């Protein structure tokens, strides 16, 4: 870790400005916690009104301490904060936690004061956490620069988990759930307004700690995607994982997020694509955030995720199979040798297929259970094991079951989980280190997430954020001719076309294009929805028809108030299927490219995938495989296979071009993009490019 | 309840045949449980080898007891069961629980023995539970004719819940979760093989108990839909609810179906439709089965489900809003008067919209919190309240919060739930009777289910299963001409067409049809996929083209081995949009009608809804509103509104016809069904009807 993060997480000394003798005040609680949780460094309460605070000597001002503390907690009110930040920066403090609220979250004036505060700190070489931050904690050192009430109620313990959150509440909720489950948490950081050291930077910092196996994130905005990508890369390089909530998905959520942190909530699909690219699993809520934690901590490789379900109840097997399908977890086909072994071990072997119904062996008596586990452990088709124990009591040796299950998982290195509704049964398995769940639903969901996340991590990349964008001339919506020209420049095949100001020019264009049949369309940036105004004339095969159509369009455009009406004359292109290709440039994450079924019903059918640019043709092929109409690429019924290669090439070209021009490009809509049979290419038939500004 | 169910659930006396002195044997456990759980009737252990068993006098045979017990548990092995069933039936026993396995679940021979056993019982006027049953329990009476291990570990307590399950394991899993949460369960029934008194009949029986507010079901098959519909009607009439797992979703999905409709909807969709119709909520797993139980038990009306979320954390509000969108729960727009009141109560009112960010009030001090609850309680736009308490500790008066929350919910009669990760916080709310959840995710999911289930119950119907079906002549796949004729008979408008055996007949048909343009298609039941064999010739406008097309089709059909090749000559019909309409007849639940976007990509786009027949046009309109392409019915972009009335009329006619002919009809595929602009109707252009047999 850098000096800054060392100062925060392993400080030799901490001053608390605005210190209180009352451990239930914001300025009292960090002092209370540091004493209580074994902080071994020096603690300097700063308060002009007292000589001792909670048993520590107190100082009137920072200057009176006589040395410069590594880190400072500034727990005075918002108005008084700036003066203290200046004093700290002047004194050479490396990092400060600002707890006061009343900054960017209150509006423009607060934003300005917040930026001034950051500037003052940076000028003195000091870094800030907050403002409006609950603060940082490293429970390995008892360094608790954090005022959350939670540690009063749920005692900390060190462990291989870090929790980084922009929200105080969202930092302590997973903490409470993990601690109540007996799991240790090392870092707990709530960054508040993210004015300087933000949640992304914090994530990168804790990712470097070799003891950390799992980082849990709560974000309402991704303020620094490059830092988060770097954090993810560091974590991956060490075999550590990141699971994150990015809240504000819904409209309601987005609205509340804006008013809460003053942060901009980015396009949600861009977040999905970004997290997937850098190998972060996106959780829907706090429950999903913590659900699979025991699997991550154990760290056994999930292989291809092919799972064996076994139970002494057929019903558990049936439900687990339903749930596996719902969560896209594959139940494995066991090798026939394994099934034979199982048949030999279990005299009244219930069901000779997965899910395994194995009545007697799950009582834990004799050596049936370990022998079954050996058989499964040795089957290369079986990557993970779920054992459902719906009931146990007299007649069951749960201790033996737990011991054997733990031993098998350890010996074969395969993830193994247990689901059991009885707390007493789960307790025994937990004591043996076996991940346990209350229901089959949770167990299957956790296994599915763990396996899918491993696949995500294996294909993760670290995107570049450093190139210098090029500019595009113009602003706002571009007319069809310019749009098609820009796309052609980008490398997306566009339909041959001519822009014409008169009907005579249109007739000339018809013969110049030299194709049998053309389309004539009104062309004006002000009128993007041409067909709704009768501005599209299809299949014109002779000069008279072209002339009439051009006149009609020019007349209608004039009536719509267009000053310099023009028409586009373009070759008629029939395609095997209509696709759509588009770009939406996220201000933070860059261009998101959308690929999907096109046509007029695009927005109803919503059969689309999206990719954060830049990406490869292989990425496009994988994404297109998730479309409902994906079978068209292999040839469907009597239709030939479509040209996925050309589609992928066009999407990659569009994405690269959008990255290059991301500062001035806002969006691209190509619909339809005609996709032909394999080897015959794609053609953009209609397009609107939107540039920034105006 | 009937005499039979009284005998099982409130017996004056119970004999246990195969009684054991060992409380951990199948024949010992019911005796142990009845003594332990306060059964006040007589217990007669039957065992020729002992004089006393677990303190009760034992009898060598049933006949030695000297009176006829109301109910008997038969706990001898499978081979010895028949003899005991006969003895019980002869003695006039009203009901017996058969615990032995080795019957229908083992194959055909076992099925035969099982039926013999039922016949013997019925002949003597006795009813059976099982075989292969864990048995019945009424914990209000201590009448435990059940051998589950679970009651050794998790003690029972009476309560307003019944659990009915075909599986023993699936009966005790929800039991364990509910009892560990402090909730009482009155009935617990595991019916095993369902040979006589099945899970549906049991459900109807317990639904009649006025103390039962909620019935939890686990089914792997719906053996008696009429009984289940009756049970649901009884429950609804009393304001009780039913939540059910129907397991085996994935198996059904996997089974291959001959018809497109059958493959698309699967048999599982029939279960969904059936449960929805009779007002049963279908849960995905045991977790969902029990999740919303506290809301059902409290029984407060969810109104329109418009929910207020409040928290002292903005993050909780943001997450709850995301989750509400995911679960289709609407967050209400509060009345402006309410927002004004809130602003007056809360000086630093965080966010003046829902979700409410209300920092200070959620500490529970002063009267802010009850005043906020009063303001919400009085707002007619607010139907339900969720309070998120991510953290509490010193400075919080959780007791006051819980008291006020409970009082408000009771006073206004509105459902109110709390989510809190801290066990200690939840405990306080539970003590005050407030439904609590660990995460916002569970709280929102429970509220969403509770509100949606109430809507389902309000529109529930009790289907008729009693009419006498009519027969259709023929078997297997019908050719297009017969199929269209059958549909026309059903009341579905079909395209004008003629069936022709020669090219000359085709030409004659062309002029007879008198339309400008026709389609000529090969017609043979053996070749349902015409377009794949080049057997469809479109837009033929002159006799020569018709003749050529007919010759081509006849030739190709002959080459495909069709003995008597024919062609259909049909009017070309252009439609505004291609739909598909289909039927798949479920052997138990009857015809399921599928409606969706048609065309060659039907099975890829899967934009379909399904309804169990019979149904009304209003049902069709509601279902079609769930299609992705639903906006087409209102007019989309430059397209006129489509004829939803005609589509609904065709679907209702098809459904009614399918119900009438359900014994001989297997499936119907109509694709495309051309839907015209409103007022212009629908036309079936291509269809395949599949009849039973051959």
Automatic annotation (TrEMBL), chains A, B:
SMART domains: CoA_binding. SUPFAM superfamilies: Glutathione synthetase ATP-binding domain-like, NAD(P)-binding Rossmann-fold domains, Succinyl-CoA synthetase domains. It comes from the Bacteria. Pfam families: ATP-grasp_5, CoA_binding_2, Succ_CoA_lig. One of its GO terms (molecular function) is ATP binding. Residues 8-103 form the CoA-binding domain. This is Acyl-CoA synthetase (NDP forming). It comes from Cupriavidus agavae.
């Amino acid at each position: 870790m850098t000096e800054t993060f060392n100062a925060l997480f392993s400080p030799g000394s901490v001053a608390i400005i605005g210190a209180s003798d009352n451990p239930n005040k914001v300025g009292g609680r960090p002092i209370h916690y540091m004493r209580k949780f074994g902080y071994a460094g020096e603690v300097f309460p700063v308060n002009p009104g007292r000589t001792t605070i909670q048993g520590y000597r107190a100082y009137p001002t920072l200057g009176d301490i006589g040395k410069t503390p590594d880190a400072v907690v500034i727990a005075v009110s918002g108005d008084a904060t700036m003066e203290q930040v200046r004093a700290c920066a002047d004194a050479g403090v490396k990092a400060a936690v600002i707890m006061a609220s009343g900054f960017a979250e209150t509006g423009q004036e607060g934003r300005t004061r917040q930026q001034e505060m950051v500037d003052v700190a940076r000028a003195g070489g000091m870094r800030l956490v907050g403002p409006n931050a609950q603060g940082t904690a490293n429970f390995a050192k008892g360094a608790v620069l954090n005022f959350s009430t939670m540690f009063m109620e749920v005692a900390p313990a060190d462990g291989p988990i870090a929790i980084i959150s922009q929200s105080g509440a969202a930092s302590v909720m997973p903490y409470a759930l993990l601690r109540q489950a007996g799991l240790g948490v090392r870092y707990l950081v709530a960054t508040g307004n993210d004015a300087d050291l933000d949640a992304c930077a914090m994530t990168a910092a804790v990712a470097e700690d070799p003891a950390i196996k799992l980082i849990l994130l709560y974000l309402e905005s991704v303020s620094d995607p490059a830092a988060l990508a770097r954090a993810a890369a560091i974590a991956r390089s060490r075999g550590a994982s990141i699971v994150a909530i990015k809240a504000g998905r819904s409209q309601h959520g987005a609205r509340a997020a804006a008013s809460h942190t003053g942060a901009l909530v980015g396009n949600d699909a861009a977040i999905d694509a970004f997290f997937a690219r850098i190998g972060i699993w996106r959780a829907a809520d706090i429950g999903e955030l913590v659900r699979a934690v025991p699997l991550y901590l154990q760290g056994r490789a999930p292989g291809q995720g092919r799972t064996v379900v076994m139970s002494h109840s057929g019903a558990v097997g049936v439900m687990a199979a339903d749930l596996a399908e719902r969560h896209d977890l594959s139940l494995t086909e066991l090798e026939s040798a394994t099934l034979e072994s199982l048949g030999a071990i279990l005299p009244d072997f219930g069901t000779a297929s997965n899910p395994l119904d194995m009545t007697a062996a799950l009582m834990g008596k004799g050596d049936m259970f370990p022998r079954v586990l050996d058989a499964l452990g040795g089957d290369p088709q079986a990557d993970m094991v779920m054992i459902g124990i719906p009931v146990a009591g007299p007649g069951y040796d749960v201790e033996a079951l737990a011991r054997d299950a733990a031993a098998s998982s350890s010996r074969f290195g395969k993830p193994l989980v247990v689901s059991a509704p009885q707390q007493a049964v789960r307790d025994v398995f937990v004591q043996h280190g076996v991940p346990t769940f209350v229901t089959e639903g949770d167990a299957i969901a956790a296994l599915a997430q763990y396996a899918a996340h491993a696949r995500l991590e294996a294909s993760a990349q670290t995107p570049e954020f450093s190139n210098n964008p090029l500019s595009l001339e113009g602003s706002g919506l571009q007319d069809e001719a310019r749009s098609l020209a820009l796309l052609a420049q980008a490398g997306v095949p566009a339909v041959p076309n001519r822009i014409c100001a008169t009907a005579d020019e249109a007739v000339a264009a018809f013969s110049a294009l030299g194709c049998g049949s053309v389309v004539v369309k009104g062309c004006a940036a002000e009128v993007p929805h041409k067909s709704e105004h009768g501005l599209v004339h299809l299949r014109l095969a002779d000069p008279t028809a072209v002339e009439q159509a051009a006149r009609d369009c020019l007349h209608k455009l004039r009536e719509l108030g267009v000053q310099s009406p023009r028409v586009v004359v373009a070759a008629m292109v029939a395609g095997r299927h209509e696709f759509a290709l588009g770009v939406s440039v996220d201000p933070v994450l860059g261009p998101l490219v959308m690929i999907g079924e096109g046509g007029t019903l695009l927005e109803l059918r919503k059969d689309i995938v999206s990719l954060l640019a830049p990406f490869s043709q292989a990425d496009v092929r994988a994404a297109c495989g998730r479309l409902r109409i994906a079978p068209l690429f292999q040839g469907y019924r009597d239709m030939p296979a479509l040209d996925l290669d050309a589609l992928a090439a066009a999407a990659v070209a569009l994405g690269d071009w959008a990255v290059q021009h991301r500062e001035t490009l806002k969006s691209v809509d190509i619909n339809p993009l005609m996709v032909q049979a394999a080897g015959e290419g794609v053609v953009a038939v209609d397009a609107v490019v939107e540039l920034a500004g105006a």
